[in-house]
Write a structure and sequence with these properties.
The protein is 78% helix and 0% strand. It is mostly helical.
Length: 130
Amino acid sequence: MMKNTLLAALLILALGQISHFGLPWWTLAIIAGMTGWLLVLNAWQAFFAGLIGGSTLWFIAAWLQDNANNSALSAKVGQLFQGASSFQLLLLTGFLGGLIGALGALTGKFAKDLVARPSRRNYLQEKRRR
């Protein structure tokens, strides 16, 4: 089970990194939804796979862009948010990415559960459950 969660998180991370080249930010939710549809077994796995993949993706992307300009932009934005440091802004960015990824993967999992046909049960199995 843990292997599927980490595989889904790595797939979200890899496809999300590829999608950063010219696609909008909300593409992360679509990628996480497709991953939740295809790979994840239960809702908690979908949530945590999206959370880990999305937060890692956005934190690393924000950190790379922040280091590229020596934290000049994040310092100015931090002043707008009552003196927040650049690291706090990076954590907030990672949290938002994780939330988008988690809700996207959860949506994919629930959509699969809604569309997938329930298995046909045997009469004797139903009788034993009562």
